[in-house]
Design the sequence.
């Protein structure tokens, strides 16, 4: 039970298709050839989808049963595009197979008029370290409405931590739980501040649901500030390989940027105090 009448129910073998040389294919693999262009574009889409979900090659390999070697080859544009292996990868990424085979188009930002319909249910989106968990409770307190973190509600629903959910059910299982919890939050809480997980934008139907039911705010910061805030929260994993961690962070941000930009409001937090940012947020949501 939360304040303001917001009540929530409580809760194989890896395939390796690499090694397909131009000689074995019996085709011309010089630049400009249609096959080369197709495989390169396929690799770019694979890398984009993987980065958008924040998945390493190792995690994708574990959840799809496809080898890291094959995934690496596909992303570099040199892999054998076996339809069965691609289907397994698409299932692990929780997308339709056509998402790997066709260029995507990101819907433009929603018109401002839609935002006014949902001003009392506010969703904060953005990468971890942007400031959602800091600003969310302060905003909710100022408005006198409940604050909810969607990831914590998913953990309550499953009776497991996020890491355990991913290990037992994979990304697809987590996303199904996330969608169910979001629907219940929307039904139970006409007035609330919701902090959504950074990867919610990677699940098109769930993100569309969030956009349609909430006034959404993209809480953003420079990559260096994202990283420092995560470290300040006590997660020292990025320090083990700072350069690679920064590269991964930039790749994830770049892969999600067009999706985050669909939010009703964009809030830059870099170089500002919490008090300054909260004042800007209150002004932005009216």
Sequence:
């Amino acid at each position: 039970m939360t304040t303001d009448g917001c009540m929530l129910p409580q809760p194989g073998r890896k395939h390796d298709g690499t090694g397909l040389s131009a000689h074995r294919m019996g085709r011309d693999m010089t630049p400009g050839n249609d096959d080369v262009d197709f495989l390169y574009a396929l690799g770019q889409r694979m890398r984009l989808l993987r980065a958008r979900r924040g998945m390493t090659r190792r995690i994708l390999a574990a959840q799809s049963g496809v080898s890291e070697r094959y995934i690496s080859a596909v992303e570099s544009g040199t892999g054998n595009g076996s339809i069965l292996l691609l289907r397994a990868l698409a299932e692990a990424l929780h997308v339709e197979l056509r998402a790997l085979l066709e260029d995507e188009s990101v819907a433009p930002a929603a018109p401002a008029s839609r935002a006014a319909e949902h001003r009392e249910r506010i969703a904060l989106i953005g990468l971890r370290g942007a400031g959602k968990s800091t600003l969310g409770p302060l905003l909710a307190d100022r408005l006198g409405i409940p604050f909810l973190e969607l990831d914590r509600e998913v953990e309550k629903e499953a009776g497991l931590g996020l890491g355990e959910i991913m290990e037992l059910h994979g990304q697809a299982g987590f996303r199904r739980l996330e969608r169910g919890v979001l629907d219940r939050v929307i039904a139970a809480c006409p007035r609330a501040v919701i902090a959504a997980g950074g990867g919610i934008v990677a699940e098109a139907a769930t993100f569309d649901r969030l956009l349609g039911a909430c006034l959404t705010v993209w809480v953003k910061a420079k990559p260096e500030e994202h990283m420092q805030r995560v470290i300040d929260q006590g997660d020292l994993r990025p320090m083990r390989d700072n350069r690679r961690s920064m590269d991964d962070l930039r790749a994830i941000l770049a892969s999600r940027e067009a999706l985050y930009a669909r939010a009703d409001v964009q809030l830059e937090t870099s170089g500002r105090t919490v008090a300054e940012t909260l004042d800007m947020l209150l002004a932005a949501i009216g």
